Amino acid sequence: MPRVAVIPGDGIGLEVMREAVRVLEAVESRFSPGCELVHWDLGADRFLRDGITITDEEFASLSNDHDAILLGALGDPRVPGNQHARDILLGLRFRLDLYVNYRPAVLLDPALSPLKAPGDIRLDIFRENTEGVYVNLGGTFKEGTDRETAIQEDLNTFTGVERICRAAFEHAVKRGRSRVTLVDKANAMPAAGRLWRRVFALVASDFPDIDTDAMYVDAMAMDLVRRPTRYEVIVTGNLFGDILSDLAAELVGGLGAAASANVHPGRHALFEPVHGSAPDIAGQGVANPLGAIASAALMLDHLGHAEAAQAVEEAVVAAVDGGVRTADMGGDRSTEQVGTWIADRVLSG
Ligand code: NAI
Ligand code: MG
């Protein structure tokens, strides 16, 4: 039975993860054996209490003794600079080399989209998760003067680009999608652009049945708002993927329902809702648990429980269709009411 480390974290992370666990317990009752859930007390409370964010032993145990990690959210206004969140979340992403950041955006109800005629949006965004401008390479010169210069380098390697492109194409084949679109800024950033375009074409040649195209990120931002149904699978670098996936999440009904996977295929995987700890609504029982529950569904699929994953996804759709929604989706249900409804639905099939 797969072992899953559950890290609720901070703020609404605790509230939405309670519901994701409730749904996983329903999955276990119906599709035994499910997964063994191991609760991890990592987050702001622990840091403020013990002065520890995460230890090397904990990193080792999370990576060696578990098949997946399910995380709520990390971030707390009481912790200056959110040091614990950086240590834990970015630490896991980089130390476990979770190079695939997969963020699906599926429109569940056209009324949730800010677009007038959204159509049937189904976007699978593959964001490179370990390189780009987020490696923090560079520095500041003459800081604090009127001659200050800040250099923030953009790291792109053959290996890094190849493996994220391959993950996107493999996903397209597995999910029966017909096209993969590369997004970059090859006109203004030609060195990175040449590498991405060459490697993308190289990988594409291994997948002759999948169509390809390439777009500049500015044009893509515009086109996602104009005609989002044109796109199926998008592969892009760290920065553009970060931005486009927030845009895509908003196009299909908001942050509260957006799910994500951080994966090193064949090795490690961490699943988390896209949203943060939302201190503005924490403790009120109103947070939308759909992002966390949909992330748990991605995890089940990753662990080989495809049938269970589908049952959870269907229950999420049924909840939205039936008006079982939290306030951010125009409903009046609490976090717990939505979670309980979905768990019951999973149980009853
Ligand atoms: P946020 O995602 O926590 O909140 C942004 C806005 O969306 C807020 O108005 C919030 O109330 C709303 N919102 C978010 N999730 C919701 C949900 N499930 N249901 C209903 N409304 C929801 O982003 P923000 O405010 O920028 O960051 C808050 C804290 O979370 C910070 O400490 C930040 O560093 C951290 N954070 C952590 C992330 C993670 O753990 N992966 C990701 C993003 C932010
Ligand atoms: Mg972001």
From TrEMBL:
State which residue ranges cross the membrane: none
Q: Sorted alphabetically, which Pfam families does this protein's record hold?
A: Iso_dh
Record has NAD as a keyword: yes
Question: What are its cofactors?
Answer: Mn(2+); Mg(2+)
SUPFAM superfamilies from the UniProt entry: Isocitrate/Isopropylmalate dehydrogenase-like
What residues does the Isopropylmalate dehydrogenase-like domain cover?
Answer: 3-342
Q: Which UniProt keywords apply?
A: Manganese, Metal-binding, NAD, Oxidoreductase
This protein is called what?
Answer: Isocitrate/isopropylmalate dehydrogenase family protein
What species was this sequence derived from?
Gaopeijia maritima
Q: What is the lineage of its organism?
A: Bacteria, Pseudomonadati, Gemmatimonadota, Longimicrobiia, Gaopeijiales
